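Researcher: I'd like a structural prediction for the single chain below. Treat it as a standalone chain; there are no partners to consider.
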Amino acid sequence: MTFKDKIDHNLLSSIALSEGYTIDYGSYKLRILDKGVIVARVGSKSDKGSERSVFLYLIPSSIEVMNLYDKCAASIHGILDEECGRIDLGKLVGYNLKILRMIDRYWAYRYGSRKP
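Model: Treating it as a single chain, here is the predicted structure.
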């Protein structure tokens, strides 16, 4: 997602922490993690949208389109049962909606009427 302004790292970090995520911020841009899995990251200068972008790592609903990272994340979060190759759609929807809720809250605080 690309916003009109540079991402406010402090605001996004605060929202992510309140949603139960952890933050990783080293020699690279802000990354938001859940159980060690990246769920979102702020763009760097080399990314499209640069520092105005947040890249979301949503898990797709089809195993056929999942890359290895998606499969690992889905397995860690109990979304994918690797033994039978089935996806728990309830957990998948909950996982993805939690990420989207975090970004929605960021947008609302940054551009809307809500206060952090």
